[in-house]
Design brief:
CATH topology: Jelly Rolls
Largest sheet: 8 strands, mixed
CATH architecture: Sandwich
Structural class: alpha+beta
Shape: globular
Distance between the termini: 45 Å
Radius of gyration: 19 Å
CATH class: Mainly Beta
Number of domains: 1
Bound molecules: N-oxalylglycine, nickel (II) ion
Order of helices and strands: EHEHHEEHHEEEEEEHEEEHEHH
Number of strands: 14
Number of helices: 9
Strand order of the largest sheet: 1-2-10-7-12-5-4-3
Protein backbone atom coordinates (compact mmCIF):
# COMPACT_ATOMS: atom_id res chain seq x y z
CA UNK A 1 0.00 0.00 0.00
CA UNK A 2 2.80 2.43 0.76
CA UNK A 3 3.83 1.91 -2.87
CA UNK A 4 0.70 3.71 -4.13
CA UNK A 5 1.82 7.12 -5.35
CA UNK A 6 -1.58 8.63 -4.52
CA UNK A 7 -0.74 8.04 -0.83
CA UNK A 8 2.46 10.08 -1.00
CA UNK A 9 2.12 13.52 0.51
CA UNK A 10 5.10 15.22 -1.07
CA UNK A 11 7.79 14.04 -3.45
CA UNK A 12 10.84 16.26 -3.90
CA UNK A 13 12.81 14.14 -6.34
CA UNK A 14 12.09 11.18 -8.56
CA UNK A 15 12.96 7.91 -6.77
CA UNK A 16 15.64 5.91 -8.59
CA UNK A 17 13.25 3.00 -9.21
CA UNK A 18 11.19 5.24 -11.58
CA UNK A 19 14.13 6.36 -13.71
CA UNK A 20 14.10 4.61 -17.09
CA UNK A 21 17.26 3.81 -19.06
CA UNK A 22 18.05 6.70 -21.46
CA UNK A 23 16.65 4.91 -24.54
CA UNK A 24 13.21 4.57 -22.93
CA UNK A 25 12.90 8.07 -21.47
CA UNK A 26 10.32 10.33 -23.07
CA UNK A 27 12.93 13.14 -23.46
CA UNK A 28 12.74 16.77 -22.49
CA UNK A 29 10.94 18.24 -25.51
CA UNK A 30 7.42 19.26 -24.64
CA UNK A 31 5.28 17.72 -27.35
CA UNK A 32 2.44 20.15 -28.13
CA UNK A 33 -1.01 18.66 -28.71
CA UNK A 34 -1.39 17.74 -32.36
CA UNK A 35 -4.06 19.00 -34.75
CA UNK A 36 -3.48 15.81 -36.72
CA UNK A 37 -5.93 13.59 -34.83
CA UNK A 38 -9.33 13.11 -36.50
CA UNK A 39 -12.34 14.56 -34.67
CA UNK A 40 -15.60 12.75 -35.39
CA UNK A 41 -18.78 14.73 -34.76
CA UNK A 42 -21.74 12.43 -34.09
CA UNK A 43 -24.26 15.27 -34.41
CA UNK A 44 -26.76 14.21 -37.07
CA UNK A 45 -25.83 10.51 -36.99
CA UNK A 46 -29.46 9.48 -37.45
CA UNK A 47 -30.01 11.86 -40.36
CA UNK A 48 -28.76 12.15 -43.95
CA UNK A 49 -25.21 12.83 -42.70
CA UNK A 50 -24.82 9.25 -41.40
CA UNK A 51 -22.99 7.86 -44.45
CA UNK A 52 -20.38 10.65 -44.30
CA UNK A 53 -19.81 10.15 -40.56
CA UNK A 54 -19.38 6.39 -41.00
CA UNK A 55 -16.82 6.98 -43.76
CA UNK A 56 -14.98 9.44 -41.50
CA UNK A 57 -14.83 6.86 -38.68
CA UNK A 58 -13.52 4.16 -41.01
CA UNK A 59 -10.87 6.46 -42.47
CA UNK A 60 -9.78 7.51 -38.95
CA UNK A 61 -9.63 3.85 -37.85
CA UNK A 62 -7.56 2.96 -40.91
CA UNK A 63 -5.13 5.85 -40.84
CA UNK A 64 -4.73 6.82 -37.18
CA UNK A 65 -6.10 3.96 -35.10
CA UNK A 66 -7.20 6.61 -32.58
CA UNK A 67 -9.65 9.51 -32.85
CA UNK A 68 -11.73 11.88 -30.75
CA UNK A 69 -15.52 11.92 -30.71
CA UNK A 70 -17.65 14.97 -29.92
CA UNK A 71 -21.42 15.15 -29.51
CA UNK A 72 -21.23 11.57 -28.25
CA UNK A 73 -24.53 11.78 -26.37
CA UNK A 74 -23.24 11.24 -22.81
CA UNK A 75 -24.14 14.29 -20.72
CA UNK A 76 -21.48 16.71 -19.54
CA UNK A 77 -22.90 16.57 -16.07
CA UNK A 78 -22.45 12.79 -15.88
CA UNK A 79 -18.89 12.83 -17.27
CA UNK A 80 -17.88 15.67 -14.91
CA UNK A 81 -19.45 14.03 -11.86
CA UNK A 82 -17.84 10.66 -12.65
CA UNK A 83 -14.44 12.30 -13.05
CA UNK A 84 -14.94 14.00 -9.67
CA UNK A 85 -15.79 10.64 -8.05
CA UNK A 86 -12.59 9.00 -9.29
CA UNK A 87 -10.46 11.99 -8.28
CA UNK A 88 -12.02 11.82 -4.82
CA UNK A 89 -11.40 8.07 -4.67
CA UNK A 90 -7.66 8.47 -5.26
CA UNK A 91 -7.56 11.31 -2.69
CA UNK A 92 -9.07 9.11 0.07
CA UNK A 93 -6.93 8.31 3.12
CA UNK A 94 -4.75 5.24 2.62
CA UNK A 95 -6.75 3.11 5.08
CA UNK A 96 -9.96 3.51 3.06
CA UNK A 97 -8.26 2.35 -0.13
CA UNK A 98 -6.27 -0.48 1.45
CA UNK A 99 -8.87 -3.24 1.00
CA UNK A 100 -8.81 -2.82 -2.79
CA UNK A 101 -5.02 -3.03 -3.13
CA UNK A 102 -4.16 -6.15 -5.16
CA UNK A 103 -1.75 -7.36 -7.81
CA UNK A 104 -4.01 -10.25 -8.74
CA UNK A 105 -5.43 -10.05 -12.28
CA UNK A 106 -8.49 -11.98 -11.13
CA UNK A 107 -9.40 -9.74 -8.23
CA UNK A 108 -12.89 -8.29 -8.81
CA UNK A 109 -11.84 -4.73 -8.02
CA UNK A 110 -8.15 -3.98 -7.95
CA UNK A 111 -6.17 -0.94 -6.99
CA UNK A 112 -2.48 -1.13 -7.81
CA UNK A 113 0.46 0.98 -8.87
CA UNK A 114 2.64 0.86 -12.02
CA UNK A 115 1.79 -2.59 -13.43
CA UNK A 116 0.51 -5.85 -11.91
CA UNK A 117 4.16 -6.91 -12.07
CA UNK A 118 5.36 -4.36 -9.50
CA UNK A 119 7.55 -6.77 -7.54
CA UNK A 120 9.41 -8.06 -10.59
CA UNK A 121 9.66 -5.08 -12.95
CA UNK A 122 13.00 -3.30 -13.37
CA UNK A 123 11.50 0.20 -13.40
CA UNK A 124 8.12 1.41 -12.15
CA UNK A 125 5.64 3.55 -14.06
CA UNK A 126 4.38 6.73 -12.45
CA UNK A 127 0.72 5.78 -12.09
CA UNK A 128 -1.90 4.25 -9.85
CA UNK A 129 -4.82 2.38 -11.37
CA UNK A 130 -8.24 1.21 -10.30
CA UNK A 131 -9.92 -1.47 -12.45
CA UNK A 132 -13.17 -3.39 -12.16
CA UNK A 133 -15.85 -4.95 -14.32
CA UNK A 134 -19.08 -3.08 -15.08
CA UNK A 135 -21.40 -5.32 -17.10
CA UNK A 136 -23.91 -6.64 -16.30
CA UNK A 137 -24.05 -4.13 -13.50
CA UNK A 138 -25.87 -6.32 -10.96
CA UNK A 139 -23.12 -8.99 -11.18
CA UNK A 140 -20.36 -6.57 -10.25
CA UNK A 141 -21.60 -3.49 -8.40
CA UNK A 142 -21.35 -5.15 -4.95
CA UNK A 143 -17.57 -5.40 -5.40
CA UNK A 144 -17.12 -1.69 -6.11
CA UNK A 145 -15.91 0.92 -3.62
CA UNK A 146 -18.56 2.51 -1.41
CA UNK A 147 -16.44 5.58 -0.92
CA UNK A 148 -16.99 8.31 -2.02
CA UNK A 149 -20.61 7.59 -1.00
CA UNK A 150 -22.07 8.15 -4.48
CA UNK A 151 -19.42 5.96 -6.18
CA UNK A 152 -21.75 3.08 -7.01
CA UNK A 153 -24.70 5.14 -8.21
CA UNK A 154 -22.64 7.50 -10.36
CA UNK A 155 -20.19 4.97 -11.83
CA UNK A 156 -23.19 2.67 -12.44
CA UNK A 157 -24.97 5.33 -14.51
CA UNK A 158 -21.76 6.21 -16.31
CA UNK A 159 -21.03 2.56 -17.19
CA UNK A 160 -24.45 2.15 -18.78
CA UNK A 161 -24.14 5.33 -20.82
CA UNK A 162 -20.61 4.72 -22.07
CA UNK A 163 -21.55 1.15 -22.98
CA UNK A 164 -24.33 2.51 -25.20
CA UNK A 165 -21.84 4.92 -26.74
CA UNK A 166 -19.27 2.18 -27.44
CA UNK A 167 -21.90 -0.15 -28.92
CA UNK A 168 -22.96 2.71 -31.21
CA UNK A 169 -19.34 3.18 -32.30
CA UNK A 170 -19.07 -0.56 -33.00
CA UNK A 171 -22.32 -0.47 -34.96
CA UNK A 172 -21.00 2.39 -37.10
CA UNK A 173 -17.67 0.64 -37.63
CA UNK A 174 -19.52 -2.56 -38.62
CA UNK A 175 -21.69 -0.58 -41.01
CA UNK A 176 -18.62 0.95 -42.63
CA UNK A 177 -17.03 -2.50 -42.99
CA UNK A 178 -20.18 -3.89 -44.63
CA UNK A 179 -21.02 -6.26 -41.75
CA UNK A 180 -24.54 -7.22 -40.71
CA UNK A 181 -26.34 -5.10 -38.09
CA UNK A 182 -25.47 -6.13 -34.53
CA UNK A 183 -22.30 -7.99 -35.58
CA UNK A 184 -20.36 -6.83 -32.50
CA UNK A 185 -23.18 -7.26 -30.00
CA UNK A 186 -23.32 -10.21 -27.60
CA UNK A 187 -20.24 -12.22 -26.69
CA UNK A 188 -17.80 -10.15 -28.78
CA UNK A 189 -18.33 -7.06 -26.63
CA UNK A 190 -19.66 -8.62 -23.45
CA UNK A 191 -16.97 -7.82 -20.90
CA UNK A 192 -16.77 -4.19 -19.84
CA UNK A 193 -13.97 -2.88 -17.67
CA UNK A 194 -13.44 0.54 -16.24
CA UNK A 195 -9.74 1.30 -15.79
CA UNK A 196 -8.87 4.60 -14.18
CA UNK A 197 -5.33 5.96 -14.31
CA UNK A 198 -4.18 8.49 -11.76
CA UNK A 199 -0.81 10.26 -11.95
CA UNK A 200 0.30 12.63 -9.22
CA UNK A 201 2.60 15.52 -10.27
CA UNK A 202 5.99 14.07 -11.14
CA UNK A 203 9.26 15.73 -10.05
CA UNK A 204 11.01 14.89 -13.34
CA UNK A 205 8.75 13.98 -16.28
CA UNK A 206 11.71 13.66 -18.67
CA UNK A 207 13.03 10.54 -16.90
CA UNK A 208 9.90 8.42 -16.45
CA UNK A 209 6.61 7.35 -18.02
CA UNK A 210 3.01 7.18 -16.83
CA UNK A 211 2.30 4.16 -19.03
CA UNK A 212 4.48 2.19 -21.42
CA UNK A 213 3.95 2.31 -25.17
CA UNK A 214 1.32 -0.28 -26.00
CA UNK A 215 -1.68 -1.25 -28.12
CA UNK A 216 -4.95 -2.04 -26.38
CA UNK A 217 -5.59 -5.80 -26.58
CA UNK A 218 -9.40 -5.55 -26.37
CA UNK A 219 -12.10 -4.95 -28.97
CA UNK A 220 -12.48 -1.20 -28.48
CA UNK A 221 -11.41 1.38 -25.87
CA UNK A 222 -12.54 4.84 -24.95
CA UNK A 223 -10.86 7.37 -22.69
CA UNK A 224 -12.27 10.35 -20.91
CA UNK A 225 -9.15 12.44 -20.51
CA UNK A 226 -10.11 15.25 -18.15
CA UNK A 227 -8.21 18.44 -18.97
CA UNK A 228 -4.56 17.56 -18.43
CA UNK A 229 -2.21 16.54 -21.29
CA UNK A 230 -0.30 13.25 -21.13
CA UNK A 231 -1.63 10.83 -23.74
CA UNK A 232 0.57 10.44 -26.81
CA UNK A 233 0.24 8.32 -29.95
CA UNK A 234 2.87 7.12 -32.39
CA UNK A 235 2.34 8.60 -35.84
CA UNK A 236 4.76 8.26 -38.77
CA UNK A 237 7.54 7.22 -36.40
CA UNK A 238 7.14 10.14 -33.94
CA UNK A 239 5.06 10.83 -30.82
CA UNK A 240 2.18 13.27 -31.01
CA UNK A 241 0.14 14.66 -28.10
CA UNK A 242 -3.60 13.98 -27.93
CA UNK A 243 -5.26 17.23 -26.93
CA UNK A 244 -7.72 16.97 -24.02
CA UNK A 245 -10.76 18.48 -25.75
CA UNK A 246 -13.61 19.53 -23.46
CA UNK A 247 -16.31 16.88 -23.41
CA UNK A 248 -14.74 14.63 -26.05
CA UNK A 249 -14.02 10.91 -25.82
CA UNK A 250 -10.86 9.38 -27.27
CA UNK A 251 -11.69 6.15 -29.11
CA UNK A 252 -9.07 3.50 -29.86
CA UNK A 253 -9.97 0.44 -31.95
CA UNK A 254 -8.38 -2.52 -30.11
CA UNK A 255 -6.30 -5.35 -31.53
CA UNK A 256 -9.40 -7.57 -31.88
CA UNK A 257 -10.86 -5.05 -34.36
CA UNK A 258 -7.65 -5.27 -36.32
CA UNK A 259 -8.10 -9.03 -36.61
CA UNK A 260 -11.87 -9.01 -37.27
CA UNK A 261 -11.38 -6.37 -40.00
CA UNK A 262 -8.61 -8.59 -41.47
CA UNK A 263 -6.04 -5.84 -41.02
CA UNK A 264 -8.17 -3.09 -42.61
CA UNK A 265 -8.42 -1.16 -39.31
CA UNK A 266 -5.45 -0.29 -37.18
CA UNK A 267 -4.91 0.22 -33.46
CA UNK A 268 -2.67 3.12 -32.43
CA UNK A 269 0.45 2.58 -30.35
CA UNK A 270 0.11 4.99 -27.43
CA UNK A 271 1.71 5.87 -24.09
CA UNK A 272 1.30 8.32 -21.22
CA UNK A 273 3.86 10.90 -20.12
CA UNK A 274 3.76 12.69 -16.78
CA UNK A 275 3.88 16.37 -15.86
CA UNK A 276 5.25 18.27 -12.87
CA UNK A 277 2.32 20.63 -12.29
CA UNK A 278 -1.00 18.85 -11.89
CA UNK A 279 -2.48 15.46 -11.08
CA UNK A 280 -3.98 13.71 -14.08
CA UNK A 281 -6.90 11.29 -13.96
CA UNK A 282 -8.27 9.48 -17.04
CA UNK A 283 -11.24 7.13 -17.15
CA UNK A 284 -10.73 4.27 -19.59
CA UNK A 285 -13.57 1.94 -20.59
CA UNK A 286 -12.74 -1.24 -22.47
CA UNK A 287 -15.07 -3.67 -24.23
CA UNK A 288 -13.57 -7.12 -24.53
CA UNK A 289 -14.85 -10.44 -25.97
CA UNK A 290 -15.86 -13.20 -23.54
CA UNK A 291 -12.95 -15.53 -22.86
CA UNK A 292 -14.18 -18.52 -24.87
CA UNK A 293 -15.67 -16.87 -27.95
CA UNK A 294 -13.98 -17.45 -31.32
CA UNK A 295 -12.39 -14.42 -32.94
CA UNK A 296 -11.42 -14.39 -36.59
CA UNK A 297 -11.62 -12.15 -39.67
CA UNK A 298 -15.32 -11.51 -40.37
CA UNK A 299 -16.89 -13.64 -43.12
CA UNK A 300 -19.07 -10.80 -44.40
CA UNK A 301 -15.99 -8.72 -45.02
CA UNK A 302 -13.78 -11.21 -46.69
CA UNK A 303 -15.51 -11.98 -49.96
CA UNK A 304 -12.71 -13.42 -52.01
CA UNK A 305 -9.95 -12.03 -49.80
CA UNK A 306 -7.57 -14.36 -47.99
CA UNK A 307 -7.87 -14.30 -44.19
CA UNK A 308 -4.70 -12.97 -42.52
CA UNK A 309 -5.36 -14.61 -39.14
CA UNK A 310 -6.56 -17.97 -37.91
CA UNK A 311 -9.43 -18.18 -35.43
CA UNK A 312 -8.64 -18.16 -31.70
CA UNK A 313 -10.33 -17.50 -28.37
CA UNK A 314 -9.77 -14.25 -26.49
CA UNK A 315 -8.35 -16.31 -23.62
CA UNK A 316 -5.73 -17.71 -26.01
CA UNK A 317 -4.94 -14.25 -27.34
CA UNK A 318 -4.62 -12.67 -23.93
CA UNK A 319 -2.30 -15.36 -22.72
CA UNK A 320 -0.04 -14.81 -25.79
CA UNK A 321 -0.22 -11.07 -25.22
CA UNK A 322 0.93 -11.27 -21.61
CA UNK A 323 3.56 -13.95 -22.23
CA UNK A 324 5.05 -11.69 -24.94
CA UNK A 325 5.37 -8.68 -22.60
CA UNK A 326 2.23 -7.09 -24.08
CA UNK A 327 3.95 -6.78 -27.47
CA UNK A 328 1.07 -6.52 -29.96
CA UNK A 329 3.01 -7.61 -33.05
CA UNK A 330 4.46 -10.67 -31.34
CA UNK A 331 1.07 -11.66 -29.92
CA UNK A 332 -0.71 -11.23 -33.28
CA UNK A 333 2.16 -13.05 -34.97
CA UNK A 334 1.07 -16.24 -33.17
CA UNK A 335 -2.23 -16.19 -35.12
CA UNK A 336 -1.06 -14.96 -38.52
CA UNK A 337 -1.65 -17.28 -41.47
C1 LIG B 1 -4.93 2.52 -21.23
C2 LIG B 1 -4.43 3.82 -21.74
C3 LIG B 1 -4.26 6.21 -21.49
C4 LIG B 1 -4.50 7.31 -20.52
O1 LIG B 1 -5.41 2.49 -20.08
O2 LIG B 1 -4.85 1.52 -21.97
O3 LIG B 1 -3.84 3.84 -22.78
O4 LIG B 1 -4.42 8.45 -20.96
N1 LIG B 1 -4.66 4.93 -21.03
O5 LIG B 1 -4.72 7.03 -19.35
NI1 LIG C 1 -4.17 2.00 -23.85
Amino acid sequence: MEVLTSNWSSVQSLPESYVFPPARRPGTDDIPPSKDIPIIDLEGIDGPGRFGIVQHIIKASQNSGLFQVINHGVSRDLTDQTMRIFQEFFALPAELKARFYSNDLNSSCRLYTSTLNYEKEATHYWRDNLTHRCHPLEDHIDHWPENPPDYRSMVGKYSIEVRKFLLTMLELIGEGMGLETGYFEGELSKTQLVSVNHHIPCPDPSLTLGMPEHCDPNLISMLQQGNVCGLQALKDGGWIGIEPLPNAFVVIPGLQLRVISNGMLTSAVHRVVTNSKESRTTIGTFLTPSNDIQIRPADGLLGSLTPMYRGYTYKEFFSRFTSNDCDAEKALGCFKL
